[in-house]
C-alpha cells in the first residue's frame, strides 16, 4: 500500500468511527448505512494517483448524499470530518472538483457597434426657411423643411454664360404642368415651376447642356419639384 493510501485509509477509518458516535444518539430517525470509506481507498492500492483522488471524491459524494436524512448537526459533523480527511490527503481536491462542477458563466455578448450616423449635408448659405435650394456652382439642388433636407441633392443644369440663372431669394409664383416656351419656338418645359416673372423656372430637360436661364431637372426630380413646391414657397439660389 502506498504512503498516501495508508494515510487516507487511517484518516477515513477515524472518520467512520466518529460518524458512528455522532449518528447513534439521533433518536427516532432512520440512519443510512454510510459507505465504508477505508475499504474503498484500500481497494485502490496500486492504482494511480488519479484513481485514488477519484475514489476519495466518489466516497465523499456518497457520504454527503446518504447523510441527508440525518439531523443537520450530525450530518454536518460527518461531512466535515470526511472533508477534513480528504483535504489532508489531497489538498485542494474539494475546491477543484466543486469549481469544475459549477456552471460556467456565459460569455458576455459582443458589444454592438453604434450605428454610424449620416453626416449632415453642407447646405451652404441656404436659409432654413427656404423650401428649395440651388447651388449653381456645385450643380446641385434639394428640397427641405425647416432646414432639414428631405429630397436630394440632385443634379441640375443652370443657365449658360450670358443667360445665367439669377441668384438670390425668390418665391414660387406659377406652375404649369405641360408648359412650352413661346420665346424658344415652343420648346417643351414639362412640369414648369416659375420663380421669377421673367420666365425662369424649374422644369424637366436635358442636363447635358446649359439652359437659357432656367433650372433643368431630370424627369423624376422635375415631377417631385412640381408636386412638392407650392405658390409662395421660398426659393434660394446661390
TrEMBL record:
InterPro entries: LD-transpeptidase (IPR050979), LD_TPept_cat_dom (IPR005490), Transpep_catalytic_dom (IPR038063). SUPFAM superfamilies: L,D-transpeptidase catalytic domain-like. Residues 56-70 have a biased composition (Polar residues). The active site is at residues 203, 214. Coiled coil: none annotated. Keywords: Cell shape, Cell wall biogenesis/degradation, Peptidoglycan synthesis, Signal, Transferase. Residues 52-72 are annotated as: Disordered. Residues 1-30 form the signal peptide. Pathway: Cell wall biogenesis; peptidoglycan biosynthesis. Residues 130-238 form the L,D-TPase catalytic domain. This is L,D-transpeptidase. The lineage of its organism: Bacteria, Bacillati, Actinomycetota, Actinomycetes, Mycobacteriales.
